[in-house]
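User: What would this chain look like folded?
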Amino acid sequence: MTTTGSSSHRIAIMGFGNPVRSDDAVGTYVIQQLKSTLSEREDISLFDMGTSAFEVLFQLKGHQQIILVDAVVNTGDPIGTLYRVPAEEVRSAPQDDPMVFLHSIKWDQALSYAKKLLQDEYPDNIQVYLIAIDNTRLEVAMSDAVQQAGDRVVEYILEEVAWTASP
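Assistant: Here's the prediction, encoded as structure tokens.
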């Protein structure tokens, strides 16, 4: 659900993942959990990115902050390990990749394209939460460890956006 408003500080929260690939769904899970609490906030836009992000990039215009949530594989750390990636890590120059298919764009590619499309309106405040996974089998259930990490991300985001609460 996307809400719009005229608040001076708008936040876009984007969750990536495939809901039928087990733990890969954690980004979309976080968005579903946040909808119950944040759907009435006019200063926050919630984007369930699924595995298709490109069409949403234009909707980022007018947001001063972006928060992304996604799964990450092959980290070597225990499943459910939570990473908060510093914004500096995602501020690289946009990279054109002719092999990027619109239905398979990931968060780093989405930010790269958003930076190119939004230019001066690209927000400086970007946070990325990544959750270590290894199960991407064709099933809808997430592992307990990954769901618990997703719940921790929900708590962190709710704490972070509490200071910008709309009246």
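The mean pLDDT is 81. If you want, I can go into more detail on any region.
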